[in-house]
Design a protein that fits this description.
The protein is of the alpha+beta class. The protein folds into 2 domains: 90 residues, Winged helix-like DNA-binding domain superfamily/Winged helix DNA-binding domain (Arc Repressor Mutant, subunit A, Orthogonal Bundle); 64 residues, 2-Layer Sandwich (Dna Ligase, domain 1). Helices cover 42% and strands 15% of the residues. The chain is built from 6 helices and 5 strands, in the order H-H-H-H-E-E-E-E-H-E-H. The strands form 2 sheets. Strands 4-3-5 form a 3-stranded mixed beta sheet, with no helix packed on it. A two-stranded antiparallel ribbon has the order 1-2. The longest helix has 18 residues. It is globular. The protein starts with 11 loop residues before the first helix and ends with a helix.
Amino acid sequence: MPRRDGCGPPWFSGQLRGCGRRLTAARELILDVMSRKEGHFSVEEVYAAVRKQYPRVGLVTVYRTLTLLVEMGLLACHEFGDGRARYEMIRGSKSEDHHHHLVCTSCNRVVDYRDFIDDEVQLLKKTEAALSKRFRFKINDHVIEFYGLCEKCQK
């Protein structure tokens, strides 16, 4: 059983309780694993990392917790064309960590793209404003994924 010594972000307990959910050791540990890792992880990868500290956790518990965290808006779930859901912490489009993805359709490599130039930022703002006006839709965030071949696979 993992220690309940405050692993995971301290606000998580309040988030769960606000959604009418209990803070279990497994949930706390899963969020802790996700908040410490950078990248995109499958259910199986999260499960393997959590089992190192909590061998009794089940794969279904990990899957259900990841689904809950997506529903709560704490994680994003991506499908990059390899048939496996991948999860990552959400930082939001307003944060400095906001990024888009470059996905290689050959080797399935995913690159987080963060270094936006001013022209890209302005184009996205204009696009969001035009879509909001045209469809009377309040846009809160966006996800952009570009698919192609990485440098290695082009050779």
